[in-house]
Description:
The complex is a heterotrimer of chains A (356), B (360) and C (290). Chain A has helices spanning 48-56, 78-81, 98-108, 113-127, 142-154, 173-190, 201-207, 225-230, 235-240, and strands spanning 4-11, 25-32, 37-41, 63-68, 71-72, 84-86, 162-165, 194-198, 210-215, 218-223, 247-250, 252-254, 257-260, 263-266, 279-283, 288-291, 295-296, 298-304, 308-315, 318-325, 335-338, 343-347, 350-352. Chain A is α+β, with helices and mostly antiparallel strands and 356 residues long. Chain A folds into two domains: 4-235, P-loop containing nucleotide triphosphate hydrolases (Rossmann fold), CATH 3.40.50; 245-352, CATH 2.40.50.140. In chain A, 46% of the residues are buried. Chain B has 360 residues and is an alpha+beta fold. Chain B is built from nine helices and 20 strands. Chain B has helices spanning 40-48, 90-100, 105-118, 134-147, 164-181, 192-198, 216-221, 226-231, 355-359; strands at residues 2-11, 14-24, 29-33, 55-60, 63-64, 75-78, 152-156, 184-189, 201-206, 209-215, 238-245, 248-251, 255-258, 270-275, 280-281, 290-301, 305-312, 315-322, 332-337, 343-345. In chain B, a hairpin with a 2-residue loop joins strand 1 (2-11) and strand 2. Chain B starts with a strand and ends with a helix. The A-B interface holds A 43-45, 142, 172-174, 177, 180-181, 184-185, 188, 199-202, 205-207, 225-226, 228-230, 239-245, 284, 286, 303-308, 325-326 and B 35-36, 133-134, 163-166, 168, 190-193, 196-197, 199, 217, 220-221, 230, 234-236, 276, 278, 297-298, 300-304, 307, 309, 318, 320, 322, 324, 329.
Amino acid sequence: MARIDLDHIRHSYLANPVNDDDFALKEVHHSFDDGGAYALLGPSGCGKTSLLNIISGLVQPSRGRILFDGADVTQLSTERRNIAQVFQFPVIYDTMTVYDNLAFPLRNRGVPEADISRRVNETLEVIGLADRARKRARGLTADQKQKISLGRGLVRSDVNAILFDEPLTVIDPHMKWQLRSQLKELHKRFGYTMVYVTHDQTEALTFADTVVVMYEGEIVQIGSPAELFERPSHTFVGYFIGSPGMNVLPVTLEGGTARLGSLSISLPGAATAAAGARTELGVRPEYVRIGRDGVPMKLRAVEDIGRHKIVRGSIEGCELAAIVPEGDEIPADPHVRFDPRGINIYADSWRQTLRA
Amino acid sequence: MLELKNVTRTVGAETHIDNVSLRLERGTLNVLLGPTLSGKTSLMRLMAGLDKPSSGSLLVDGVDVTGVPPQKRDVAMVFQQFINYPTMTVYENIASPMRVSGAGREAIDAAVQHAAALMKLTPYLQRTPLNLSGGQQQRCALARAIVKNAGLVLLDEPLANLDYKLREELRAELPRIFAEAGTIFVYATTEPSEALLLAGNTATLSQGRVTQFGKTIEVFRRPDDLITAQTFSDPPLNTIVMRKAGSQFLLDGGVAFPVPDGLQDVPEAAYTIGFQPHHLTLVRTSPEALALQATVTAMEITGSESFVHLRFTDASWVMLSPGIQNFVVDQQIEVFLDPKQLLVFDGQGRAVTAPARLAA
Amino acid sequence: MERTVNNKAWFLVLPVLVLVAFSAIIPLMTVVNYSVQDTFGNNQFFWAGLDWFQDVLESDRFWDALGRNLIFSAIILAIEIPLGIYIALNMPRKGWGVPVCLVLMALPLLIPWNVVGTIWQVFGRVDIGLLGRTLASMGIDYNYVQDPVDAWLTIIVMDVWHWTSLVVLLCYAGLVSIPDAYYQAARIDGASRWSVFRFIQLPKMGRVLLIAVLLRFMDSFMIYTEPFVVTGGGPGNETTFLSIDLVKMAIGQFDVGPAAAMSLVYFLIVLSLSWVFYTVMTNQGQETGK
Lengths: 356, 360, 290
């Protein structure tokens, strides 16, 4: 296991990049701690897969260095970096048995058969495929194939990191739950450094201790799931994480109050923003309370999705979504209040600290 | 109205569709929910006329269309893979079904502009599909299906290959578009949450059979059998097998529940008790709530919610709890379960009578 | 289920049936007829029973020709399949090189058989052919008209030149369908170049390769035009394959009866080999399906 440092990484798929727009990765300077579970989260085209491939060595960065435990590996080939990677679509060697699939990376490295047998059998136990060791890998289900892909990484006890590129894309929802908890358990048991790329917030937040949110080739926020949820540092994070995303309302600031049209919303602290900046108030649907007092809301739709209801409507002409627990009543003439704990203020899309 | 009467399709020794009967009304959105290979795509292909049933019949507004080929049916279909004509512009792609039907120039233009606006494709009309993102390509395919103005629109996991957020946005749009169009929409998905967000009606599928069909939220809340409940639950349904003895449900090891109201008369036998993950709570929600001692096996936090994986005797459960819970693995915690929320299934997996249904 | 049965559909396939009857069934029946008759011309025929079949199966001429056919097929398969795979593996996967390579590869396939024969016939001639003169000037004693080994070499080289492209194109189609992730995973697993070929490329090419083997085998087994044009079956009978022998017998010698019997035996051999290939291929298909 290793600590991974990305030292001012920039990458462009063009031969001679000139300006920032030519770069798929604008500038990434970050460290992945030894034994940490990280997720790279972002929409398609944000550069997350490029970054993963730069770590694994499948792509050479245009600028910057990658260090494993302090040693520069930028010029090292994929096989010499000693990492494992699980891809979106399961990669298995069709003609081999499950056992031979797992033994393959060890045989390629000239490990003695006795050691191979021991390690493959251990890994088969870990991924729960011991009873299928002698079966052809071809006939297995998608989730079993994905476990084999993972197993080929785990079998090498000395891997520096395990990288995942949207590994649950082809897996049915019920199996996702199983695989996800098995991954977490593996991480806890063996302390691998894991980096997990996904566009799915649930996967990212449940898997990782630290989530790196990427947008247009840049990191916009790094934080724990709770931080990303409660204190999104950019309106994009507020939108991208959470279902539905954060409500963003254009407001003008006057010390401890925010004005939305004719409404005044009192803030938990005083906010200031540079003159001319576009100021917004962000509040997640989970912090919008619906009741008989507060600001009147024009109701548009109520979606009952089982465990809670999503209420959609508008205040002062601005779209607003709220989440109401299962069983709670929605009054005919609904009013909304914002829980002060969930109020964030943004200037030009970046979060401002409120002074008490 | 589209009606399937005892439709079965077998290929070789395999039964792909097993005696399915469904009635889909005009102006409704119907979700086919089930895991991979449960028969969603096979059923859609039968509806489209791409395959013929081995037995049974399909009726459109009472007319038998069983052997009618797809090009003679009033049907549009969108697949999981983005399928567009690669050399045509987005405009021509969307217009193509109307060109085939020989519509006038102005009618075509009006329809294309309308569909493009719905799908937010107006700025891209002159591009070719390969110069678009995945989401835009799929919206182009959707727009083509809308323009065709068919009586039956089949969508086979249309959002599966799109980003999570894009999926969320399109999912919010689709029911509105469906409501406007007044046609029969059929939408296949593997994800229970998607069915709930789309609302409308849901048919749950398992191994080629439709296990239940009804209003989405009703099927979710009152499943007729264990398979339906399991298909329609994400996170997976929590279950435990218990034996009814007198006025109690017993588990080996001394755990006992009082039998909930309305179930006192069911015969003494083994039952599978099921409940949704969000019905396990950390606080007592009602005076009758059962208090259970469980062990934490794993924690997953999404920021707004926590999935607490628990072990209760031999059973593995998930509790979906609002906010951030900081339990450690192997910690013993007390959780509560409202008996009103229990689903009780007999030895064959049939719902005995869910107490919630009696209360409703 | 009620299903209306409409017999009119049969009328629609009738033209095809008539065509097949005239082009295949009637000639075949004529051949069957000839194979059990003897004639001395003048349209006088005598019943010969299975005599011709017995003659054919007992004649060295038949077995020699069959042997030559099998050796020829084995040699060209042994060359064209590995060579085709090798070329396909080394063709570019993206960029401007792709269309260039594809066109170059397709060129020999576009040339008619007899033209290919003529090209090589002229190309190899010792007096005026570029190849023949060049080899002669290098002091190599090459003459496909007189030396059996040279004749064989010429025909084999010609066939390889003409048909390896087909194997290349089929293999290439199989190769480009392999997702990048497989190669990336192999690099991560530390696989050697040979392992990548053995465990990723070869299995993924399996089905197209089988088709390539089948096509090349059937085609080479029925080879006629090229050796006929280049060597005419000689020197002696050294390049006389079954098809050439058949034509010699039927048209050259007017031994219609033995020729018919031989062609039927030939036909049955081809048919049974096709069946073997078909069975192998469908079994393979069932294994890889799912």
